[in-house]
Amino acid sequence: EDFLNLIFKAMMKDSLNSSHPVSSAVQSSEQIEEMFDTLSYIKGASLLLMLKHYLTKDVFQAGIEVYLHNHNYGSAQSDDLWDSMNEITNGTLDVKKLMKTWILHKGFPLVTVVRKGKIISVQQEKFLYCVEPENWTSDARLL
Hints:
- The structure is a single chain.
- By secondary structure, the protein is mainly alpha-helical.
- The protein has a single domain, classed as Neutral Protease, domain 2 (Orthogonal Bundle).
- It is built from 6 helices and 2 strands, in the order ααααααββ.
- It has helices at 2-14, 29-35, 38-55, 57-71, 78-89, 95-103; strands at 109-116, 119-126.
- Strands 1-2 form a two-stranded antiparallel ribbon.
- Strand 1 and strand 2 form a beta hairpin.
- It is globular and about 55 Å long.
- The two termini are 29 Å apart.
């Protein structure tokens, strides 16, 4: 229950136009410090939980074990984790491509489903908690 409350707080922060991606290139130590905030940790953790449920617990666990084995006593990048997951899925799923859609963009999608009789329509857009006036520029194209 506590983690769920943290996820909702992180989603609120992530729904603001001032949000940032979980992962991005940095040029200075100050930028590194800025990246390690509540949003990065909680959204990152919830994305890993989402991936674990999608892949199944056993496949996810095996991917983590491969990742830890391949990078013990060394450094790693986020792609290394996705590559380890791809190794376990034997190319049946491109985990790197899937996860980059979540970690390289700020915000999250809002999916709206409308049913009219037998017709169902689905629309996806970037969710923004507070849309700014006319001078606001959308980066919804990134979703």
